[in-house]
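sorry for the late reply, my laptop died twice this morning and i had to redo everyting from scratch. anyway the thing you sent over, i finally got around to it. pasting the sequence first so we're on the same page, its 402 residues, then the predicted structure underneath. double check i copied it right bc i was rushing
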Amino acid sequence: MSTGDRRAIIDRALADGNGILRCEPAWVARDFLPTMFRLGLTEEEADVGERGFICERWLASTTKADNRIGPPDEGLSYLKLDHGERMTLREAVELAGPEILGTEYAASHGNTLGRLAKIYDYKYRLPYHIHQMKADAAKVGRNPKDEAYYFPRGVDVGPHPETFFGVHPSIVMEGKQEILLPYLVNWDSDLILRHSTAQLLVPGEGFHLPSGALHAPGTAVTIELQEDSDVFAMLQALNGGQIISKELLFKDVHPDDRRTKGERAVLEQIDWETSGDPYFYENHHLSPQVIEESKQAGAEEAWIYYNTHKFSGKRLLIEPGRSFESVDNGVYSVLVWSGKGTFDGHPIEGKKFGWDELVVTHEKATQPIVIENTGSEELEIIKFFGPDVNKDLPMIPKYPPD
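ok and here's the structure:
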């Protein structure tokens, strides 16, 4: 099919949706941990053999999953189109960037949404790991991965609803970072976690985590918003009762650094200042920040992803029988977490695949959109924005103050 024919498909979809696109779920498998089957798939659907289990759903994704094995389009969202047509959101944005992102945004940020949103569901705590910072990620041709979490309400938090963050502050204060090295060399236990501290995961709250910071996420279902990347280095060998492949330690380490420095190369990629912050909770915990100026009868928005301009996000709550007039600064995607209603006339429903995920183009987003709750329960919608769409964001004040 020619480029012109492909462009005609996206133009038709934009016209039919009046500036709003629907997305199908993008399922991602991981082979180092099983799932708890909380994403709406059956056990048979989630078990994908050698690829492991489908543990993640990527949302309005233009990012390909970086797995050892898997389909070539794993992680990429497909538009929900008529007439049997197939097109990824990434291709749509590449073909019609100005129409989807806005002319100025496409020119300044390239034809990309510039962020990745996902839901993940793991049976055990994820292994202790980092996401490489900008300079280290660039060595292997990838982006860094700052990220933020929101723990949705109304779902089982699993057996380990706590996340280990960083290391005991004394390790950094006393220059003892190499205390972690034997765990990486021996690669036979989970005892590296003895050097970290866990924080309880509270539904309705979250955390902001810069790249390079050590963490081992707990089993609460997590809606994550992050930079456009899938880089990591796992530092914990034993997890979920099994030894994971040591190749995951070196997955995004440049071969020259692996050859000359071995396991120390990963220690050099850690953001020790953040990981050793004695006030990590005070400086990185996210609670919903209600947006007073957009409050309406029976409906309110709150910032749930903030403290950075690399991405941002809101939670919109609408009571049964109420509506909300939405106006935003630019392109965003939507996850309908619970409830049912209409979004600019488009039927929406939480946990109904094909009906719970939208992309709202720049022009549409900046004009009034009416969102109605037509169901009998609260309608909860998450909005995900890319870099620099929202300038006036809450920032966590540094603690303790200088």
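Residues 300 and 330 are 19 Å apart (CA to CA).
thats about all i looked at so far, will dig more tmrw
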